[in-house]
């Protein structure tokens, strides 16, 4: 448990360091660098298969994914504070997008996010909800999809 806290807080410290270097209009490389700490924290916390998680990042959403993999997007969304009270927080999603992405990518991602927010309903399983929401955003605009 102690190690989990060290990893989590280490990720937060790293994210703050990177956030001070990253401004609106970050390159994909900068986004990748920042998100690596979040990714490692959630993979370690959940015990998720790294290969399957990497697949999600490439738009591969296996229907038969185990709970660990299905909960990975929720873990990331919770750490980045875009998931609250059983739903995606669209104000926080926009804030994160504007900080992390170039304007054109943020605009496209936010359009997809807004559509998915309206289409995807949380039926009581938060992991499934965020997994389906993320899959929806990928399907709406795969060319600009990014998720840690």
Automatic annotation (TrEMBL):
Residues 1-24 form the signal peptide. InterPro entries: PBP/GOBP, PBP_GOBP_sf. The keyword Signal applies. GO terms for molecular function: dibutyl phthalate binding; odorant binding. GO terms for biological process: olfactory behavior; sensory perception of smell. Keywords: Signal. CDD domains: PBP_GOBP. Gene3D superfamilies: Pheromone/general odorant binding protein domain (1.10.238.20). One of its GO terms (cellular component) is extracellular region. This is Odorant-binding protein 34. It comes from Encarsia formosa (Whitefly parasite).
């Amino acid at each position: 448990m102690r190690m989990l806290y060290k990893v989590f807080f280490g990720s937060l410290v790293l994210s703050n360091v990177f956030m001070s270097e990253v401004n609106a209009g970050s390159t994909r490389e900068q986004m990748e660098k920042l998100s690596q700490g979040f990714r490692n924290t959630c993979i370690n916390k959940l015990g998720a298969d790294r290969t399957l998680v990497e697949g999600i990042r490439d738009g591969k959403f296996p229907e038969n994914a185990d709970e660990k993999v299905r909960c990975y997007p929720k873990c990331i969304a919770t750490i980045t504070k875009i998931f609250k009270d059983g739903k995606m927080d669209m104000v926080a999603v926009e804030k994160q997008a504007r900080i992390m992405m170039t304007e054109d990518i943020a605009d496209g991602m936010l359009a997809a996010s807004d559509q998915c927010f309206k289409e995807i309903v949380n039926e009581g399983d938060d992991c499934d909800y965020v997994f389906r929401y993320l899959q929806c955003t990928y399907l709406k605009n795969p060319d600009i999809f990014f998720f840690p």
